[in-house]
Structures are given as structure tokens and as C-alpha cells.
Request: fold
Amino acid sequence: MAGQKIRIRLKSYDHEVIDSSARKIVDTVQRAGATVVGPVPLPTERNVFTVIRSPHKYKDSREHFEMRTHKRLIDIIDPTPKAVDSLMRL
Reply:
């Protein structure tokens, strides 16, 4: 597979989970003999939801909720067949 590249994009709401998954992928691919670039942290996406606290009136009283999506990018350059197989079994 000379001259090829595998790009893996990870998304998660919890940064600890995405970091452990990225570490597991990098360790597996490096043991299989391929070169790895990353994990590269991509910008965190923030979704903010505004909700009125009261069910009836008092529109000035509001509550904010946010959902953050953390992203990481891993590039595998010149993957070996063993590296691809180990990624499929992961």
C-alpha cells in the first residue's frame, strides 16, 4: 500500500474518552509498523441551548445548556496490511 494514507476522525462528547481511544489507535498502529501523525486536536464544537425556566411566564428568566463535541484527527501514512488488519480488529 505504498503512497496511501488513512485518515481517522474521532468525535466525542467526553474528552477523556476520545483521548483514550486515540491513544489506543496510535499504539496499535505503531506496533503494527506504520507511521502515525497525531492525534491532532481539532476545534471543539459548542452548541448552546437557551430554555425559559418557567413553564408559563417570566420570559426574562432563562437557563443555558451547552453540549461540547471534541474532535481529534489521526493520519496513518503508508499503512501496512498488518496495521489495517489490527485496526479492523480494534
Summary: The helical segments are 15-32, 81-89. Residues 5-89 form a domain with the Alpha-Beta Plaits fold (CATH 3.30.70.600).
